[in-house]
Amino acid sequence: MMARMDEVDRRIINALQGGFPICPAPYAAAARTIGIDQDDLLQRLRRLRADGLLSRFGPMYHAEKLGGALTLAAMAVPEGRFDAVAEQVNAHREVAHNYAREHHLNMWFVLATEQATRIGEVIAEIEAETGLAVFNMPKQEEFFIGLRFEA
Amino acid sequence: MIEIDDKDHQLLARLADGLPLVSQPYAEIGAALGLSEADVIARLRHLLTMGVIRRLGLIVRHHELGYRANAMTVWDAPDDEADALGAKLAAYPFVTLCYRRRRQLPHWPYNLFAMVHGKARAQVLTQIDQLNDQVGLRRLPHRVLFSNKRYKQDAARFGTGLANAR
User: Fold this and answer.
1) Within 10 Å of residue B158's Cβ, how many Cβ atoms?
2) Are residues B58 and A145, on separate chains, in Cβ contact within 8 Å?
3) Which domains does chain A have, with CATH numbers?
4) What is the pLDDT of residues B107-140, one digit of tens each?
């Protein structure tokens, strides 16, 4: 079910995905640009978070700049085993996202590791646990865009 | 690779849970780490400038926001054209992620990946048509893989607090 949002909620979501002030009173500064006061903003953020529309205010990191690695991997999972395999895959803390998709390769997940060498190890573990091949498709080039969703 | 110090790592770990919803959140984070508010602010600005943090902002749950149609469109682009095509795709506002990736022949011949998130499948398909027509991609082998089910959407959690990387 979609939680209810009013016009101000939408303005908040649209304004603050791109960036958030880094100054002593950032919510007050952000509230000013939206045209509301700080208490109203904080109250709305708490409600939007409680309703599950917002995850949090947080940073998007650049894993590779800290020596970490990210990759996209896919598997062809027999239909009857899908939920069980999803559980096996998701049990790895390195699995960040996992989506079922309409293709012979029907399970797609992102692996994020602190050390680049760990990617291959996690893939080998998943293959051993499931008996299924994991196809690794690391990025070779990223075409940058901010991930933004208009409310 | 960029070297950051222990305090930076602790700061990133602390931020992974989200900025506290209080009037002076950087002071609160600093108090927990033994840093002044000014030091936290200076370190965050530095991490942003260095690109260790791509951006600091509101992270939405797109599915809950009504973005239910999520398509990964893939093309098999000639190697010498893929980067130019990717740069063009990335300029479309509805393309939310765009990468060139390693093929997995013979199982997977596609190397150019673009995500389109939309509220309805029909709208997403229209947008993908637009990409194929305007970027000149229709001639290339391509596939649209919609997702029906999300099994996990976590911030990637690392001991150092390297969360929500991509």
Assistant:
1) 23
2) no
3) 7-50 (no CATH), 63-137 (3.30.70.3460)
4) 999 999 999 989 999 999 999 999 999 999 999 9
What predicted TM-score, i.e. pTM, was given to this entire model? 0.81
Q: Name the residue with tokens 């290339």.
A: B140
C-beta atoms of B2 and A66 within 8 A? yes
Closest of A2, A58, A31, A7 to residue B157, by C-alpha: A58
B71 pLDDT band, cuts 50/70/90, is very high
Q: Which residue of B has its CA nearest to A45?
A: B21
pLDDT in tens, A47-65: 999 999 998 888 877 878 8
Q: Does B105 touch chain A (CB under 8 A)?
A: no
Q: Which CATH architecture has domain B69-147?
A: 2-Layer Sandwich (3.30)
- Secondary structure of chain B as H, E, C letters: CCCCCHHHHHHHHHHCCCCCCCCCHHHHHHHHHCCCHHHHHHHHHHHHHHCCEEEEEEEECCCCCCCCEEEEEEECCCHHHHHHHHHHHHCCCCEEEEEEECCECCCECCCEEEEEEECCHHHHHHHHHHHHHHCCCCCCCEEEEEEEEEEEECCCCCCCCCCCCC
Confidence band, pLDDT 50/70/90 cuts, at residue B60: confident
| Min Cα separation A127/chain B (Å) | 16
What confidence score (pLDDT) does residue A2 get? 56
User: Which is it for the CA torsion B91, B52, B20, A97, positive or negative?
Assistant: positive
Class of residue B6 by CB neighbours under 10 A (exposed 0-12, middle 13-18, buried 19+): exposed
**ipTM of this complex prediction, to 2 decimal places:** 0.81
Q: Which residues of B touch A28 (CB under 8 A)?
A: 23
